What does this fold into?
Amino acid sequence: MYCVRNASTDDLSELSIIEREAFTESWPPTPFRRDLANRNVEILVVAIDMNLEQTPEKFEVNETLYENLGYIHRLFNCLNNLWRDAPGHDAKNIVGYVATRQMYDEAHITSIAVRKSFRGMGIGELLLMSAVSNAMKKNYRTTTLEVRVSNRIAQSLYKKYGFNEVGIRKRYYSDNKEDAYIMTTDTLYSDLYIEHFRKLVDAFDKRALNINWNLSGLYAD
It folds into this structure.
């Protein structure tokens, strides 16, 4: 079974492997050890966890999402048994991560990466959802990120979660000097965004159940 959890120093080698696999451009490697020690940086991972043997109950959203974030204390327990179909992976493997840095009153997503053999399974969306959920739980005003102007697939996912293009960083990427769009959400604790996010969580939950995932709730401490 898989879960979303905070990364630890035990995950350093796996984080580096996934980064190299996901980002083949000539970026300097991320100092994951330093980031894990930085209280302004949070790294979440989707990891295989064979200790999660019980199927969790389906979570309920009462009233509004923001006013009832208590249910988020439970982990996403998801992707049940799908690891058996993924060659070359065992119970120690991490299959994706998302890194977020606190910048004043916003949560800035610096990186989302998924192992190649696990792409197309919704793990990237799960990570994005978890990062946004954490930002809401911690009362950040918005969530922001940069994305390549050519990466239409990622842009589509971000727009689905309420990220809007608000600017451009010229020649942002060092490998080919490609521009980056700056994307940001509306105010996370607005009623409009809360309702939009709740609907996305519910829709993801239904899709997860249709492919034998077990989904208990959004990650947050």
Strands lie at 2-6, 41-48, 77-78, 94-103, 106-114, 142-148, 164-169, 180-184. The CA atoms of residues 98 and 127 lie 6 Å apart. Confidence is low (pLDDT under 50) at residues 52-91, 211-221.
